[in-house]
Specification:
GO molecular function, one term: AMP kinase activity
Protein name: Adenylate kinase
Order of helices and strands: EHEHHHEHEHHHEH
Keywords: ATP-binding, Cytoplasm, Kinase, Nucleotide biosynthesis, Nucleotide-binding, Transferase
Largest sheet: 5 strands, parallel
CATH superfamily: P-loop containing nucleotide triphosphate hydrolases
Helix content: 55-70%
Number of domains: 1
CATH topology: Rossmann fold
Strand order of the largest sheet: 2-3-1-4-5
Catalytic activity: AMP + ATP = 2 ADP
Pathway: Purine metabolism; AMP biosynthesis via salvage pathway; AMP from ADP: step 1/1
CATH class: Alpha Beta
Bound molecules: adenosine monophosphate
Strand content: 5-15%
Number of helices: 9
Radius of gyration: 16 Å
Amino acid sequence: MYNIVLFGPPGAGKGTQSEKLIEKYGLTHLSTGDLFRKHLGEGTKLGQLAKKYMNEGRLVPDEVVIGMVEDKINETKNATGFIFDGFPRTTAQAEALDEMLSQHNLKINGMIALDVPEDVLRVRIQERGKTSNRVDDQDDVKISTRIKVYLEETLPVADYYAAQNKLQKINGVGEIAQIFKDITSVIDSY
Ligand code: AMP
């Protein structure tokens, strides 16, 4: 049973690699971005609340995100482990996650951080924007906001796991298959 945080800036390839990891390890994918987009599509109260933050590329408030993740963990029965994708994005979220997992006698095995330079991220997000239907992928200002928010609010989360000796960095540029191989060697070492 592994619980892994897949970390990286927007456009780092977290979603792509998560899909492959779920298939290989049978883990449950917990992407807060996907969950919010589902709520948005279904027009729930939570979706309406998250919408303005998402469309501007800003973070949804911690208590909202944490509550949603808690529900998802509690309703997932017989899980063989989770891949957390796009969560935690603040140190407060990371602390809350540790707390939630410890209530189920679980812990994070490690954080795998995909390293991708900013110019590559921009090109990838713009490419994705052509087909993703995501408002936040379509506009240079929003893309810049997301990268800025990542650098200022989310990057400290890597320090949180580094302090627990749980951080592994992976080069996120190159062939998808090679990046996947590098990630699996980290997981297989847990
Ligand atoms: P993502 O698909 O992970 O890029 O997330 C899309 C958007 O959803 C983000 O730009 C935020 O507005 C919101 N979001 C997703 N995950 C989180 C999180 N852990 N904390 C705050 N906001 C989030």
